[in-house]
């Protein structure tokens, strides 16, 4: 009949091929054999279908109950191209799995109507006769259209066979025979906000969000479920987030007919079951969900490739395999664990004590100011546990009152003082450090010195830097009468640049109280830092520079609790990169410095921030030197303890 290469024969064969559907009671092998016969007949007419076209037509012949497989294959196809071999293998595997499971349906469906009323099922009219009415909202299609199985969703015929009764023209979920023979089915219809729900299983359900988005949700709270149909990642666990933004982000409809709000959006850092770090972006926090959900669509948008084959899932980026999973029932699952708790950024999980340590034992008043100005976030209140390291480093006599006036213009007055000698040499052989404090902003600069005669060189560097940075002239320097400040070259330099040099009265350090108090504050913090991290004294130089770095990012009482760095630079200050001094740090070893079997991470000790250079400063206890790296993983609650020290050059 179809040997003639006429347009009519081609049309008839193509129509039969398009309308060929997988029906109940027919095996996959029979279905594919019939499909291939039609393709061969079409070929005899001169119309040869490409392999990809055949694969797409075969996928189109599957009923709705196979939609998960269709989506999975579509998303995992290399370069978006499916092949007949890929499709037939997947169909055979799915048929075998369904026979073993003894069921073809393990989801409950939630259909959400268009809330604007402009889409399908949006109004309240009802159709009659052959179903040509508008059929919107709570319509009831009557007459011959209902008897012959016309779909009530869109008022058009379903061109396929029912998987339950075998009749043509309707789906299994619309089959009257199926619905009548399911007395144990929990069928709940809720008209609230135009949502209709039919619960067929207690293991999983579909949850809709907005108009089109939906999620698969299971009942286990350990694994992560991979769903290529989900529009976004979701989790019920607040402590997983590393960034957290609360707000009103809509709601989802749960399988038990209740609503659950999306209370926040943030990022989640996890370590996959193959050991790779994976950042899930824009994860929705839905407290009433029972499972962590990974969206395949969202991963695709991040540049990852999802591959589903023979009951396994593989996530890759380029040649790197990021994660693996396996099929469990009808869901693909994977195991992953949260990255180290120090990454956690949820408010109640970042305790005031941790911020107290990060900011080198900042006072309660200082922490309260940063919280009030929304620079950092923590729990319900700033209540610190008793810190014995603060007593070891800070205990002092009751202070005297001060009535001095602050300057308002940057560099109008700079205070300076030298602290030392320190009983232990630093890593770079220093025994002193000098500080310069701008009176208007109270920002402090510190330089480590091997001897006091280096003060003049450091002052010249400081002078050139601050004038270039601010565009203002240094007008006055206040110091004590130490020989390092009264040398002939120091006086000549001040005279040449028009800097007024104020010297205090001998044996009256109160006249230079700002610099004296700053040196005391720095040394108090240094003692606390070394005590808490159990680090040896030669690391005092690194501790001094780190203390100054963090003092500049802390509120100042003379400035009415403004932050020094913000007052100086007129820019907001970031705190997200701060870590606890002396904690364990694992630096990434670049491929140029390692061989194939060498470890990719090097355990170090965190000792500071790069002020004039990028990256964190780390002490490598194995090679006994300071290294810099930007690719570091921190364990802020763990410390190496006392480590041997060998002094080196080019360090404080």
From TrEMBL:
Pfam families in the cross-refs: gag_pre-integrs, Pol_BBD, Retrotran_gag_2, rve, SH3_retrovirus
Stretches with biased composition (Polar residues): 103-112
Q: Which GO terms describe its molecular function?
A: nucleic acid binding; peptidase activity; zinc ion binding
Question: Which InterPro entries does the record associate with it?
Answer: GAG-pre-integrase_dom, Integrase_cat-core, PolX-like_BBD, Retrotran_Ty1/copia-like, RNaseH-like_sf, RNaseH_sf, SH3_retrovirus, Znf_CCHC
> Is Hydrolase found in the keyword set?
yes
Domain CCHC-type: residue ranges: 162-177
Record GO biological process: DNA integration; proteolysis
Q: Where is this region: Disordered?
A: 96-148
Q: Which Gene3D superfamilies match?
A: Ribonuclease H-like superfamily/Ribonuclease H
Presence of the UniProt keyword Zinc in the record = yes
Sorted UniProt keywords? Hydrolase, Metal-binding, Protease, Zinc, Zinc-finger
Cite the Integrase catalytic domain residue spans from the record: 405-572
**Name the record gives this protein:** Uncharacterized protein
């Amino acid at each position: 009949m179809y040997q003639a290469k006429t347009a009519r024969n081609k049309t008839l064969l193509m129509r039969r091929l398009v309308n060929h559907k997988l029906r109940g009671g027919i095996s996959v092998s029979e279905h594919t054999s019939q499909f291939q016969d039609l393709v061969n007949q079409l070929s005899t007419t001169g119309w040869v279908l490409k392999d990809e076209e055949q694969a797409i037509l075969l996928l189109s012949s599957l009923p709705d109950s196979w939609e998960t497989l269709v989506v999975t294959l579509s998303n995992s196809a290399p370069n978006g191209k499916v092949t007949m071999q890929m499709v037939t293998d997947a169909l055979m595997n799915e048929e075998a799995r369904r026979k073993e499971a003894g069921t073809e349906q393990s989801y409950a469906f939630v259909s959400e109507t268009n809330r604007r009323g402009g889409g399908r099922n949006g109004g309240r009219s009802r159709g009659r006769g052959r179903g040509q009415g508008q059929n919107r909202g709570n319509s009831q299609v009557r007459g011959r259209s209902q008897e012959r199985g016309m779909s009530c969703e869109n008022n058009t015929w379903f061109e396929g066979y029912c998987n339950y009764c075998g009749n043509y023209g309707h789906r299994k979920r619309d089959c009257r025979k199926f619905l009548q023979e399911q007395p144990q089915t929990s069928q709940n219809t809720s008209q609230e906000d135009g949502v209709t729900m039919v619960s067929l299983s207690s293991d999983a359900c579909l949850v809709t969000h907005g108009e089109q988005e939906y999620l698969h949700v299971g009942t286990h709270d350990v694994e992560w479920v991979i769903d290529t149909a989900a529009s976004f990642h979701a989790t019920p666990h607040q402590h997983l987030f590393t960034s957290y933004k609360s707000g009103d982000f809509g709601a989802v409809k749960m399988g038990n007919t209740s609503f659950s709000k999306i209370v926040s959006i943030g990022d989640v850092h996890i370590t996959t079951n193959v050991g790779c770090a994976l950042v899930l972006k824009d994860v929705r926090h839905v407290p009433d969900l029972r499972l962590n959900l990974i969206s395949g669509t969202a991963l695709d948008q991040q540049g990852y490739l999802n591959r589903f084959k023979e009951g396994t899932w593989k996530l890759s980026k380029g040649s790197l395999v990021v994660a693996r999973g396996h099929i469990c029932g009808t869901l693909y699952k994977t195991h992953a664990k949260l990255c180290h708790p120090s990454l956690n950024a949820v408010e109640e999980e970042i305790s005031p004590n941790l911020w107290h340590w990060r900011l080198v034992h900042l006072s309660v008043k200082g922490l309260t100011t940063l919280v009030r100005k929304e620079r950092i976030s923590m729990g319900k209140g700033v209540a610190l546990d008793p810190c014995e390291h603060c007593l070891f480093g800070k205990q002092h006599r009751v202070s005297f009152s001060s009535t001095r006036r602050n300057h308002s213009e940057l560099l109008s007055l700079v205070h300076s003082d030298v602290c030392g000698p320190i009983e232990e040499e630093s890593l770079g052989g220093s025994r002193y450090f000098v500080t310069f404090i701008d009176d208007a902003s109270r920002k402090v600069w510190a330089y480590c010195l091997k001897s006091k005669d280096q003060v003049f060189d450091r002052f010249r560097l400081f002078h050139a830097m601050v004038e270039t940075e601010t565009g203002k002239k240094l007008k006055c320097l206040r110091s004590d009468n130490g020989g390092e400040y009264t040398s002939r070259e120091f006086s000549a330099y001040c005279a040449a640049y028009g800097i007024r040099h104020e010297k205090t009265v001998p044996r009256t350090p109160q006249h230079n109280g700002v610099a004296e108090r700053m040196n005391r504050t720095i040394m108090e913090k240094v003692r606390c830092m070394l005590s808490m991290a159990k680090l040896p004294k030669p690391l005092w130089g690194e501790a001094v520079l780190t203390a100054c770095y963090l003092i500049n990012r802390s509120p100042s009482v003379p400035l009415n609790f403004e932050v020094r760095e913000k007052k100086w630079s007129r820019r907001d200050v970031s705190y997200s990169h701060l870590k606890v001094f002396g904690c364990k740090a694992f630096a990434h070893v670049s491929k140029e410095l390692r061989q194939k079997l060498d470890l990719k991470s090097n355990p170090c000790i965190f000792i500071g921030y790069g002020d004039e250079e990028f990256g964190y400063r780390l002490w490598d206890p194995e090679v006994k030197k300071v290294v810099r790296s930007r690719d570091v993983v921190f364990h802020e609650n763990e410390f190496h303890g006392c480590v041997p020290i060998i002094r080196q050059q080019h360090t404080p």
